[in-house]
Amino acid sequence: MTFARRLPCIVVLLATLTIPHVAQAWWNPDFKQRTQITLNTGPAGVTTREAVNGVAVPVRLHSGNFDFIAAKPDGSDLRVVAADDKTPLAFSVERYDGNNELAVLWVQVPTVAPGSDKNVLFVYAGNDKASAEAGTPVTDSGALLTLRFTENDGLARDVSGSPAATTPVALEVNGLIGASARFEGAAGLALPADPRVAAAAGAPYSVVLWTKPAAAGGNLFTHGALAVALEAGRVAVRFGALRLTGGDLPASAWAQIGLTIGNGQAVLYVNGVEASKADLPAGLPAIDGTVRIGEGYNGQIDEVQVAGVLRSPEWMKFSHAAQSADAELVAAQLEREGEGSGTEDEQAGYIGVLVKNLSVDAWVVIIILGAMFVIALWVMVVKSLLVVRTDRGNQVFIEAFRSAPDVLVAGGASQHTTSSLARLYDAGLSQLTKRQVGQANAPRLSGASMDAVKASIDAELVRESHKINSQMVLLTIAISGGPFLGLLGTVIGVMITFAAIAAAGDVNVNAIAPGVAAALLTTVAGLTVAIPALFGYNWLASRIKSISADMQIFVDEFVTRVAESYGER
């Protein structure tokens, strides 16, 4: 093929490589933002070896991964879409606090593929015309009972619709995922017997719950003859003749406990990892009757789930990582309308990320620092022009003064308007004129008269010094106050970021990094104000010092010449 024939192909290839990639079309263009949630089950995340189907995943939203200002105040414009950016997913809102910029959604994910970083879903928002569409609360497939302790009336309810508990339970607002149940060693929480939750003898049965113990003992969960308890800080399972223990639980730390019974074995999991297992003895009874939670237990409990299937080790591993917001598994990033699926840094640049994550207090600090920078810049420009003009005017005047045959005819400020020395000369000349110096028959100046002339010039020197040093204090304020204001903004921003992360329960680095980086921007702003002001102040101070020295020398020189020409002999 000749070059002439190849040329069109080359042009097309170069155009393909150089034309920017067009952003993937959004599910609905009426929504102005979306947050991409990635569940990484590959080597760089929490590795799983089998697919997890029909799992309910908590999605934590905060200022680091979601723009609450652009969304509706009540979160009614929230939508969740699958990785194909076409299929809506079922979700429920457990918590939405637009004022504190915190939200928790439960999303029904059909399938989470093993060993993949392509498990993606999108949370859309920013549509003022949208109405609330969050349906009934979602649960994991196979779940018979799911307690999430989110009711305002203080009664724990199964999100799948089972009857309310017979005993109210205290709530801890900032628990593991939203609110959690708080127990203080009393009778605990009792749910009426429900045949839908029961398991016949030998039928598969799984129970999973989260606990944050304040003491080392108490029953966490009992269902008929089955009991899962804490004994001396370890998990203990009692079920007929079955005894199973394992896993040390530290006090005041959240831990997930899972138990599966079926296929001839009982397996105990702690934080998604197998802690102990045993063969099932013969003659085990059915699991039915009243469900009791937290009896004689002191601490918090959240996300209690009973399932009529055997949860696999991979399910336990994934469930623990997802609900604990493991940063290796869950990553979230905010995208604006028109952006593709690349990182936010690539789309808007690092500065754009920082600016979008600035808190209100950081904006206040930056606005103050911006005003200080403008004032400092104005002072430096005005003072630089002043000292340059004054210095040049002084040089011209001093040459004229020294070359003048008589001290009285050197020419004053009327001829040298920019010279401070000329104004000193005028102050001295006015005193000499009052004493008729230089006129016929005028008496010669006495020592007292010379002192009066010098005092007048010294007074003008002080006024000139005040004039040339005026507003320099604004530069010193910028130099010393700018970094401290910036540091204040950073400290407050970091405090707010970590408080929000603690309240949301999300330890993802993508949740922490934008807020902390944005908070550090105020320190950068403070230094941006202080550093130029420091250089400008030092340069101006050296020039002002030189002009002041010239004025003091001129005073002595002027008085000396007057004394020589017109003083007493």
Describe this structure in words.
By secondary structure, the chain is α+β, with helices and mostly antiparallel strands. It folds into three domains: 21-137 and 318-349, no CATH class; 143-308, Jelly Rolls; 357-569, no CATH class. The chain has eight helices and 21 strands. The chain has helices at residues 3-18, 313-323, 344-356, 360-403, 420-434, 447-469, 472-504, 509-566, and strands spanning 33-39, 52-62, 79-81, 91-97, 102-112, 119-125, 143-147, 170-172, 180-184, 189-191, 205-213, 218-223, 226-231, 234-239, 242-248, 255-262, 265-270, 273-279, 291-293, 298-307, 330-336. Strands 7, 8, 9, 11, 16, 17, 18 and 20 form an eight-stranded antiparallel beta sheet that branches. A six-stranded antiparallel beta sheet has the order 10-19-12-13-14-15, with no helix packed on it. Strands 3-6-1-21 form a four-stranded antiparallel beta sheet. 41% of the residues are buried. Mean pLDDT is 85; it is low at 1-23 and 340-348.
Q: What would a concise description of this structure say?
A:
This protein has 569 residues and is α+β, with helices and mostly antiparallel strands. It has helices at 3-18, 313-323, 344-356, 360-403, 420-434, 447-469, 472-504, 509-566, and strands at residues 33-39, 52-62, 79-81, 91-97, 102-112, 119-125, 143-147, 170-172, 180-184, 189-191, 205-213, 218-223, 226-231, 234-239, 242-248, 255-262, 265-270, 273-279, 291-293, 298-307, 330-336.
